[in-house]
Amino acid sequence: MEARFSTTSPEETRRLGTLLGERLVSGSVVALTGDLGSGKTVLVQGISLGLGFDGYVSSPSFVIVNEYEGRLRIFHVDLYRMDGPELLDGLGYRELFWGDGVALVEWAERAGDLLPAERLDVSIDSSDRSERLFVMRGEGTESVRMLESLSAAWDGGDRD
What we know:
Blueprint: E1 2-7, H1 10-21, E2 29-34, H2 40-50, E3 65-69, E4 73-78, H3 93-98, E5 102-106, E6 119-125, E7 132-139, H4 141-155
Parallel strand pairs: 2-5, 2-6, 4-5
Antiparallel strand pairs: 1-7, 3-4, 6-7
Helix pairs in contact: 1-2
């Protein structure tokens, strides 16, 4: 299943993320792709809020993984500085991607085939500077269910 969402401000992007975070379950993987500055970290901030974490969320570019505690453990992974997926072996990626928490992976394309088949792919298009287009594709039963629920909430006006 594929769904498209459009936002016009960082606050609206965070709200979309919050709605998504409220729907994530243990073992969820959200694979984010988009250009530098497209809104990946802003979306992750919202997802973390939706998962019950109200602290500061920043891009873990230099440490690769930040961990937060919400209603589920949150692994915020940033692969920007990685040249290839082989470097994930040293990070314990199996625990990140198949553990009991939620993995939010920025620059997910750099993970290659190491990402689980069951995941939510989020591609962000920021070519229009006044708008962000989020194309989300559910891969697997649970991800499709979450995406359907998110679409209903977003279309239903649950943006306050």
